Structure formats: C-alpha cells, structure tokens
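Students often ask why we bother predicting the structure of a whole assembly rather than each chain alone. The short answer is interfaces. A chain on its own may look different once its partners are present, and contacts between molecules only exist in the joint model. In this exercise we take two input lines together and write out one structure for the complete complex. Read the inputs first and try to guess which parts will touch.
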Amino acid sequence: MSMKRNRTFSIYNFCVMLLCVICVLSVLVLPAFAEPAEDMPDWYDPDFSPADVYHNDPSVPRVVDNAGVFSEAEYDRLSRQLESMRNELNMDFVLLTDDSYHGQGYIKYATDFYDMNGYGLGDDFSGVIFFLCFEPGDRGFEAYGTGRAEKYMTERNVDKMSDKIMDHMVDGNYAKGVETYFSQLRTLIKKGRLPLSGSQIAALVIIPSLIGLIGGGISLSSAKASMRTVVKATTAAEYLNPISFVVNGSVDNLINTDVSRTFIDRSSSSGGRSGGSSYHSGFHSSGGHSFSGGGRRF
Amino acid sequence: MSEMFLHKCPNCNATLEFNIESGMVVCAYCGSRYNVKDLLTEAGQAASSAADAAGAPAESAKKTDKIKEFDWGKYKERLTREELAGNRSYLCETCGAEVILGATVASAKCPYCDNNLILLDNVTASLRPNAIIPFKILPDQLSDSVKKFYKNRKLLPFHFFDQNKMSAVRGLYVPFWLYNCHLKGQMTLKGSTSRSYTSGDYRITETSNYDLLRDAQMGFERIPVDASLKMPDELMDSLEPFDYSDLTEFNSGYLTGFISERFDSDPDENLPRVTERVNNSLLEIMKGTCTQYSNVSVSENHMNVDESSVKYVMLPIYLFDCMYAGKTYHYAANGQTGKVIGELPVSKGKKWLYFGIPFLILFAIAAFILRWFMG
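Now the answer. The structure tokens for the assembled complex follow.
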C-alpha cells in the first residue's frame, strides 16, 4: 500500500518537474526562434536598457538617411549644420529619414532611435530628433525634444516651425526643409524665440509705427486744441428759450423696409487644428526620457 | 465842432467816473458817490436836447425788463447821411482844448486834462444803445483770471510763466447786437431703424426707412453779435457767454472812465452770422426729436422766422497784451465774467514731446504685443 503511494508520488513529482522545465524553456529559448512583428532595423534592441548605451559619442553620425533622400552634398551640409549646433548649444541634434516606422508609429520609432543609439548630451541626454518618414499612407515629419531641449518644443513653436517648411516638404525639397527647421530651432534655443520672416519684420515696424503715429497725432491735436481759445461761434443752442420750443405735431411715415439675409457658416469650429498636424507632450520613451514635439503629414 | 458831454459832480462840479467795485459813479475830487440811475435826469436832459436837435425823440425806458428794441428802420434812413470814416473834432468843456477823435468813438478821455468825455453824437437819439452790462471785474482781478487761463495750456513754453509780461489793461465797451428770433413751421427728416435676428442658417437684418414730419416752433433770445468792424468776430464770439441778468438800461454814466465806440456794422450786415448759428442749432434740436431713429438727416426745411427783433447793447471787454520772447500776444477778457481768451505762444519742444512720448510708448506696447503674437 505504502509502495503504491510512493510510486504515485514520484510520477506526480516527475510530471510537475517536467512542466516546470517546459515552461522555463519556453520562456528562455523559444523567443530566440520567434519572428518579430515587423522586420525591425539592426539598431532596434527590444531588451534595450539605457545603461547599455555609450552616450555622447561624436563619431556616431547625426544624419541617418535610411530613406536615401539626400544627395552627398546635402548630407554633408546637414551634418555640418547639426554638428555646429551641437557645439554651440551643447545639445544633440539628430536627423533620421526612413521608408517606414516599422509599425511603431512616429514617436516611438524616433525616440527609440534616439535612445538606443546613445544620442543626447549631458546628464539629461538633451537633444532634438527630427524624423522624416516615408511610411506609405502616412508620409510626414516630426521632431521631438528631450532634456533641456524639451521646453522649446512647445505646440506653438512646433506648429510655427512646421508651417515654415511645409512648402519645401510638399515640393520634395527635403534638405532645404530640414535645414530651415534646424535653423529656426537654433534661433529658438539661442534667443528663446523663433526668427521673424521679412513680412513679419515689416509688420513689426509698420503696425506699431501707425499706432504710434495715430496716438501721437491725437495727443498733439489735443494739446493744440488746449491752446486754441479763439473759436468762431457756430451754434446758438445756449440761446434757445426752452419754454418756447414746442413740437405741435409729429408724424412718422414708414417708407420702405429693406431685408438682408446673411448665411451663417456653422461648419468652421474655433480653435480647430489642420488634419495633418500632430503634437505630443511629455511622452516617455523606452529609455525613460520625456520627449515633447510634433510635426506634419504631407 | 461836434458836441460832447461830461458827467459832473453836483457837489464840486468835477468830472465823475464809474467805479466797478461799487457799481456807482464816483467823484475823484470830493469823493461823492452817485447811483448811475440818478444821473439819468442830467444825462437824459442833455441827451434829449441833442436828440431834439437831431430830430428824433429820446428813448428812456426805466426798467431793464422793458428795454426797448433798437429802431433799425429809423436809423436806416439816417445812415445814408452818416460819415463813419475819418475824425471829428470836439471842444473839451473842462480844459477848452480841441480834441480830435474817430467818428465812431462814444466815450474817451481828454488827452490834455484826462477828463472823461461822452460824445453825444454817438450815444444819443437813434444811436442810443438800448442797454448795457456794466463792468464787474476789476483790472486787478484779471491777473487771477489770466493765471486760470494759462492752466492746462499744454504747449506753453517751459519758462513762459517766469518771463511773460502783461501790458496795461484797457477797459472798453464794445457795441453788440442782441438778436431775438422766433421760428415756426415744418421740417421733414429721414431716419431709419434696424433690427437683426437669426432664422435657421441666416441672419436677417431689417432696415425700415421713415419720413419724419415735425411741426414745431422755437425762439432764440439775445444771440450776441459784435457790431464793431474793428473787433475780430471770432475774438468777440469767444468771449461769450454774458450773463444777461446784469443787463440794464443804458446810461452814459457807465461809460465814464472807459473807451467805447458806437456800432459801425449794422444789424442787416450781421444777419448772416446769426442765421448760420440759428440754422445749425435748429437742425440739431429737430434731430433731437427723432432719437429713436438712426442716420437722421434733414430732407425738407420749411421752418421760417415769423418774429424777429434786435437790441443794441454795450458789453464790457478788457483788452491787454502779453510780451514774451520779444513778441506781443493779444488778449481779451469778458469784463463781466472774467473769461480770458487770446493768442498763446507755442513751444516747439513741447510739441515734439506731446507727439513723441505717446508715439514711443504706443510703438513699444504695440511692438511688444505683436512680437508676442508672432512667437
């Protein structure tokens, strides 16, 4: 009886142990043979840890043209621009182009690229990544800032910078568009505000001048009026005897009525954004860094 | 040789002078004071005799509320014979000197004995003013009025108050016409009302246009117009208003000690000035009866003057000058109310300040706001 019980116990124990081994194997070994959801690029590390990456390596290229949209000259020019900005502003500036975001979406793909390749200067890995993506059906660009650069990537600034390069992007003049974007970004970080266009500068001079001229003119006219004491009398209202004023009869005849109808356009809603724009604030990347930024689809 | 008259002290026979402070005529020699109205008998007799000589009855109403209207018709007949230009010679009753004065002068001082002369030709008979407002403000009080006048004159030069010098003040009675007119009739105005409301997807605006017929009457009383060609019209207009409660029957005693002139611009010549003022006010008053309408304008005006009259009065004016930076600026003051008007020096530097400071402030604010909106 007791032997039968011991045999039953050892079979039971064996089965439990076998199941445990199968479970451990399935966790440790099987993923190695599993196919990823999409064909991810080489740099993509699903087990990424920030501690594994060596940061601030100047030899790592800042312009990664995986989509192959830049000529050699454009590539060099952009690389020099980003390097110069990095040296001047003590932040990293990265440009990534790709044919796809491999199912990850703009923000995840771009921020993972930034984290996993060790970009970013300083303890807070400050920098901006500009991602130009030719994902079929979702072609566009987005830029995200982290560390000290994050505060500059406000919705308002991103909108303005994106607006300015949209024409270049739509026309396929990508190098010019990216160059303009980073140029604006340089001014934004250096001076705390975006550079002005020629028409804005003109408006900034002409409109305040006109307002100043009107205000100055009114002030001077009022001062001049205070000096005018000799004035020709043109009315005699103060000499009207109020008792003598009598309205004996008063008839108001309606002549005609004009009716005008104006269509009220209710379709436009205030504060709406164009369908092609996006903005994300305080997004935490795989590396645990906070990113803010956005862009446009074209 | 034209006739003159002197108001003499019944007590000592010295000439009398009107005292602004007491409102009485005072003898500078014996100190006697007389009510101006008490002089009426003496002046009236003299005036009557002069008037009889001119062939016109003297007018002497005793109460101010019954001040007679100026008989312009009678005067018009005489006007053709009048010579307003040139000078007339008078023989001073006191010193016997021959005094040459302008043809329109009504009162003056003898340049030899300094006595107060009343020139009867210009203040009696058909030229006798209906009423007068005596001086109430003393020349000494004018400095306070002038200080008030300078207040809030923004473009006065910085050192004007330290460096300007006021000349001697001359008090004079200026002839004025006071016009009364009563208007009656109809006026047609055009006006509109508007209301807006929403109906479905449309904003509807209804504008109703009306013809507004008004039958009305009104009277304007004592509109003053200066009757002296020597006085600039705008200057005299600017001295208004006068307080007509002080209007009193004319007596030449009020003129003693002051320069005065008779009118040399008749009521017909001045009528366009009054008509313009009355018409402008008439339109505003009639528009005021259509306050519930907007865009009110006059389409037909059939308001006509059905009654009109004119009074000939003497009103008190002070004239003086101020010298500043080598230039003379002319001033006038209402001798009854103390209101001062006149030409003022303008500082070019202050002109720039009054333009430049608001310009710079507004420019900076506008640029800042605009720059903020531009990001």
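Check your guess against this: Chain B has three domains: 4-132, 139-151+160-246+264-346, 347-375.
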